[in-house]
Amino acid sequence: MTDCCAAPGLMPLHEGLEKLVTETPVVTESESVALEDCLDRVLSDDIISPVNVPSHDNSAMDGYAFQFSDLKHHSILPLAGQSLAGHPYQGTMPSGHCIRIMTGASIPEGTDTVIMQEQTEPSDQGITFTKKPSKPGNNVRRAGEDIAEGCQVFRKGHVIKAQDIGLLASLGVAKVPVVRKIKVALFSTGDELKLPGETLGHGDIYDSNRFAVSAMLKRLGTEVIDLGKIRDDRSAIREAFLEADQRADAVITSGGVSVGDADFVKDILNEIGHTSFWKLAIKPGKPFAFGKLPNSVFFGLPGNPVSATVTFQQLAAPALHHMMGAKRPPAIELPATCCTPLKKQPGRLEFQRGILSTNERGEAEVVTTGSQGSGILRSMSMANCYIVLPASQGNVEAGETVKVQMFDKPLM
Ligand code: AMP
Ligand code: MG
């Protein structure tokens, strides 16, 4: 992302990200977990295949196994027995014969080729080939053809997906070496905040950030320590920071980092550790704080719900990935035709919320979710992507091509 035209005095997103990644330590402790418990965990070691996959030469078809060279002298091969999946042929293969074989069954010694049953006709004398196989090895899957014993299957830092668990199981791996879960303490600040279920007083709002951030933290595979909502009170906030720092590897707060509030939170954070308050050249999400406490790192998200989500996804999440030693590919950005006009002033990189779909020609199209205020959480909820507009960009007209960044849907 280029921020060449970012407003003066604001920090480009990539610069913020670089600082976070350089200054966030990587957790090195690891543990061994059962295969069924390793979803979304980060590998602490390379995985080397302990076996060949497939483990033995086997048939890719239901048909007959035979020695290819036998076809020079015979056109009918008498049947000598059978090989089924899990029940290999036991005897010694008589020359000039064939074996009934099923998909996945072991290729008997003394045979090298399989003909599919549709290309044969059985008779009293044996099996007649109606179509001659082209070469030895036809329809045979070789041992180690998919994965050879000793080869690297996953690298350290890989984040384990559902299908990876299947692959690990197919290698016979029962225990998986993973980085220990990182602990993230979370609290929100603000006298106006009420809990869902409580009644709102005049001027109150519900604390939504903590719930959204907590859910995203769980998706990231972290252990969340939820310290609740804390009053805008010097000693309460100080206590919360001290407790969070004692218990967690990372501390995340929402609210209290914009200009109005920053002063006393800033004082507390700088009494305990060192924190910088950033004004980022992104919209939404201008204020963001990053700090180092005695035992943990600190990410201060802005209070506005959309800003909190965007800064979490764009800054805190990559820093936490780094902390977990996770090597995740960067978010995929795709071009799409924007079917609605978008308002934008040049100056900041914007993450507008969009709904991406494909039209009847299979082309990607995106529309805005509507009003883009940083407090409008519904814009985030309706969206399935960000429309990423570079700093230099002004208004977008309907029909122009824009870049979109898909939200994660980590089923696989
Ligand atoms: P602040 O950054 O504390 O000045 O808050 C900016 C705006 O975000 C204010 O309108 C707050 O009421 C709102 N806000 C702060 N914290 C939260 C929260 N946890 N959930 C929802 N909105 C919040
Ligand atoms: Mg506040």
Can you give a write-up of this model?
Helix content is 20%, strand content 29%. The chain is an alpha/beta fold. The chain has four domains: 13-29 and 181-324, 3-Layer(aba) Sandwich (Molybdenum Cofactor Biosythetic Enzyme, Chain A); 32-49 and 148-179, Molybdopterin biosynthesis moea protein, domain 2 (Alpha-Beta Complex), CATH 3.90.105.10; 58-141, Molybdopterin biosynthesis moea protein, domain 3 (Molybdopterin biosynthesis moeA protein, domain 3); 333-406, MoeA, C-terminal, domain IV (Beta-clip, Beta Barrel). The strands form eight sheets. The chain has a six-stranded mixed sheet with strand order 17-14-18-22-21-19, sandwiched between helices. Strands 23-25-24-26-27 form a five-stranded mixed barrel. The chain has a four-stranded mixed sheet with strand order 6-7-4-8, with no helix packed on it. A hairpin with a 4-residue loop joins strand 9 and strand 10. Helix 4 (234-247) crosses helix 5 (259-272). The chain is elongated, with a radius of gyration of 30 Å. The model has no long low-confidence stretch (mean pLDDT 94). Magnesium ion binds next to loops. Adenosine monophosphate binds at residues 188, 190, 192-193, 205, 207-210, 254-258, 260-261, 302-305. It catalyses: adenylyl-molybdopterin + molybdate = Mo-molybdopterin + AMP + H(+).
Count of individual helical segments? 7
Q: Strand order, biggest sheet?
A: 17-14-18-22-21-19
> Overall mean pLDDT score?
94
Q: What is the CA-based Rg, rounded?
A: 30 Å
State the end-to-end CA separation. 27 Å
Provide the domain count.
4
Query: What global shape is seen?
Result: elongated
Question: In the CATH scheme, what's the topology name of the largest domain?
Answer: Molybdenum Cofactor Biosythetic Enzyme, Chain A
Uncertain residue ranges: none
